[in-house]
Design brief:
It contains 25 helices and 25 strands. The protein has 764 residues and is an alpha/beta fold. It has a domain of 203 residues: 3-Layer(aba) Sandwich (Rossmann fold), CATH 3.40.50.
């Protein structure tokens, strides 16, 4: 078994490069004038990114740039360059060591298009929120331009776009399987996941005169090679791994065509019995079977089906995806190899997670915590969202099949120390303009996984489960939230801090394991709304998502309401749901809509399933097979919603209250044989058809506009009304004047805030 922590050099213990004499800069330079001011004649490393340059640890280019600067290298930034020619990629001159290329904090296709493949008009990572500042498949395009600018300079791909496309993958936008992005980008090497260890090792080796061809042993990297090196063992997994039923030995002297099945079985049994107890011949020798020697995982590679095979065989695609996800634990993962044409794509095992000291060191680097001055007063929406937030951890062991966090950041939680986090809060208080005393978030991919891990490091290193919390919470998982509660208490006691909010997504099935944590959260850290994501109510889609049943949500809701009442507050619980996820039927969405109607919850925003590259749910969508269990040609089929009209219907069920959806839902319910749900009764989903429906829609919009005029006169909106002597919040949804508050949305005594979209996550 591989050790839990293979030997590696600690992140900040590498020898410094000679250029450390230049010290650190307030901002990494974006033009030659800034380089001249720093006394640089050239950059050692240039980072090209699809995001605006924000010198903040929630932005990948800032972390990697500052980390390389701390190693002594001179690092420049080319942010959102004009990709139509190579000129913008030559603005800082030729780098001495390499170009580091990333699409940004998001996959460029997801950033550019909606789940219905419609272009977005905005980009949260661009000054002014303007769309169109990066190309489709940005890291691929940027890499090609870098090679045009300086052919001989190595190009290292990184970021979430490279992580999710490191292997042959289904592309939702072209509806086909694409090659690894490394081949199409003509880059020299790809780093996936959190790239700190790999990128520092690459920079150090290049500075010592090595080439990318010499660096084939770095974890968390992918590259091209021609063959398997000498001394390595190769496991062939190019076919579906199922031996099938092993038939019993049949008596060769029985004519099977003349006997029925029962008589054949009886004769065969007698023959087996006779041969089993025959006398042993004197010259017979017993054959000795020796167990196969255990392979050294560190020198074992698994050969996946080739790009050409998975392109033409969806079952092999699903099989390859299953193998890939089984080899994600840094403690036991093996290298993978996949043939593309006549060359091999080689993917080394995932990077070793950073220790707490290393995480503290990364977040203690001298970030300016602001956008580069070149942007002036332009507002960058993604920065505005995280300006007063603190990232306390990374990674997620939830394993949700539609999510990209685990595939990029890994499933081992990497946490910062309490002292490091408190120091950053004080840094925000002192440095960030506009700070009013409110920390908008202490979180990460999942707010309450901070310092949670397997109780036994040896078990953690050998585990191959895709999730620690599905189908239930693993008995080996530590669910004690004590460290997080202590952090919350000390953070809100810091001088100058008035409020500490938790805005990141919450894993509620973990939270209910520690009711005291829920009490701490609800009493002190909910800013009117708390977002959680049950995603669905029906077991069919939930089993394909690897999400807990709605019962876990109900238990959390009970605790939330109990502690909210004890605190004397009125607060909202906002659940999110997904439409059109693989494994979801029209009936599933209907039952979800009935659940929403029962609790009078009216979703203002709808999230439709988005097939991101490499996700297990995307494999279900593309292949109709479930990679969560053994894949065979006869294994159960997973149905997916691909027809645009059916996707529209599933979203309409989530917004059953919107008059614009009533006609579509009526037709669907009649087709499903559920016409009894059409009517004005309390147990019916949508009203019966009436000729003046358009008038109703018009009136609902008129009421909404009237509310805006009322607000101008009185300072109050129609969202605010009196109920039992208390002011409560309702949402504008274009409905008739029925009350829109819900039992799942408890109220706040402070000024209500509109429910926000899911927070943007840091992606590197």
């Amino acid at each position: 078994m591989a050790s839990h922590h293979p030997v590696h050099t600690a992140l900040f213990e590498h020898p410094k490069y000679w250029a450390e004499c230049y010290g650190t800069s307030e901002y990494l330079p974006m033009n030659r004038a800034e380089m001249d001011a720093l006394g640089w004649d050239s950059c050692d490393i240039i980072i090209v990114t699809g995001d605006a340059y924000v010198d903040h640890p929630s932005f990948g280019m800032a972390i990697i740039g500052r980390l390389l600067e701390a190693q002594g290298f001179r690092v420049g930034i080319i942010a959102q360059p004009d990709w139509t020619s190579k000129d913008a990629f030559m603005a800082l001159g030729e780098p001495n060591l390499f170009f580091g290329v990333a699409a940004g904090n998001m996959d460029s296709m997801i950033n550019r298009y909606t789940a219905d493949r419609k272009p977005r008009s905005d980009d949260a990572y661009t000054p002014g929120g303007m769309g169109g500042k990066r190309p489709d498949r940005a890291s691929l395009v940027y890499s090609q331009r870098c090679k045009e600018a300086y052919t001989h300079v190595p190009v290292i791909l990184g970021g979430i776009e490279a992580s999710l496309r490191r292997i042959a993958h289904y592309d939702y936008w072209q509806e086909k399987v694409r090659r690894s992005i490394l081949l199409d980008a003509t880059a020299d090497m790809l780093v996936y996941g959190n790239a700190e260890r790999a990128i520092v090792e690459i920079a150090q080796r290049l500075s010592r005169g090595q080439t990318p061809a010499d660096m084939l042993d770095i974890r968390g990297t992918a590259f091209i090679r021609q063959d398997t090196p000498q001394g390595w063992s190769e496991i062939d997994s190019t076919r579906v791994d199922q031996p099938g039923k092993i038939d019993r030995i049949v008596n060769p002297y029985v004519n099977t065509q003349e006997l029925d099945a029962c008589e054949l079985e009886q004769r065969n049994d007698k023959w087996l019995d006779d041969t089993a107890y025959r006398p042993k011949r004197p010259d017979e020798k017993k054959i000795q079977f020796h167990p196969r020697a255990k392979l050294d995982r560190s020198r074992t590679v698994i050969r996946l089906p080739s790009f050409e095979k998975i392109t033409n065989d969806k079952v092999l695609y699903a099989h390859a995806n299953r193998v890939l996800h089984l080899e994600t634990n840094p403690g036991n993962a093996r290298a993978l190899v996949q043939k593309h044409g006549n060359i091999d794509l080689w993917i080394n095992p995932p990077p070793i997670p950073l220790s707490m000291d290393e995480m503290d060191g990364v977040f203690a680097l001298p970030y300016a915590r602001r956008p580069h001055p070149d942007y002036g007063d332009a507002r960058i929406p993604a920065y505005e969202m995280i300006r007063f937030s603190v990232n306390i951890m990374r990674g997620c062991f939830g394993g949700c099949t539609f999510c990209s966090i685990t595939e990029h950041e890994g499933r081992i939680i990497q946490s910062r120390s309490k002292e490091s986090i408190l120091n950053e809060i004080e840094d925000i208080r002192e440095k960030v303009p506009g700070f009013t005393g409110v920390i908008s978030d202490l979180g990460g991919p999942t707010a309450n996984m901070y310092r949670l891990a397997c109780k036994d490091p040896k078990i953690e290193a050998s585990c191959r489960k895709p999730s620690c919390v599905y189908p239930g919470i693993c008995q080996n998982l530590n669910t004690d939230h004590s460290s997080l509660k202590e952090l919350y208490r000390e953070a809100r006691e810091l001088p100058g801090v008035k409020k500490v909010l938790i805005s990141s997504g919450l894993r509620y099935d973990l939270a209910v394991e520690d009711p005291e944590y829920v009490k701490e959260l609800v009493t002190h850290h909910v800013g009117g709304y708390l977002k959680i994501a049950p995603e669905h109510t029906e077991q069919g889609p939930l089993s394909k998502m690897m999400k807990p049943g709605i019962g876990s949500y109900d238990r959390f809701k009970e605790l939330f309401e109990k502690f909210t009442k004890e605190a004397g507050k009125e607060q909202y619980l906002i659940p999110y749901f997904i439409a059109a996820h693989p494994g979801t039927t029209d009936e599933d969405m209907m039952h979800l809509a009935l659940w929403l109607k029962k609790y009078d919850f009216r979703a203002d925003q709808v999230q439709a399933f988005y097939p991101s590259p490499m996700a297990s749910a995307t494999t279900m969508y593309h292949t109709g097979k479930n990679p969560l269990s053994r894949v065979t040609y006869k294994s159960d089929k997973v149905d997916s919603v691909k027809d645009p009209e059916q996707r529209k219907l599933h979203k309409a069920f989530l917004r059953y209250h919107d008059p614009a959806n009533w006609d579509l839902l009526r037709k669907a319910l009649q087709r499903m044989g559920r016409a009894e749900l059409i009517g004005d009764g309390p147990n019916q989903l949508i009203p019966a058809y009436s000729p003046d429906e358009k008038q109703k829609i018009y009136e609902s919009h008129r009421r909404k506009n009237k509310g805006s005029a009322h607000a101008k006169r009185t300072g109050k909106t129609q969202n605010e009304r009196q109920h039992n002597g208390k002011k409560i919040l309702t949402q504008h949804t274009g409905l008739p004047p029925k009350a829109q508050e819900t039992s799942t949305m408890k109220k706040t005594t402070g000024t209500p805030q509109k429910a926000k979209r899911r927070p943007l996550k840091s992606r590197r």
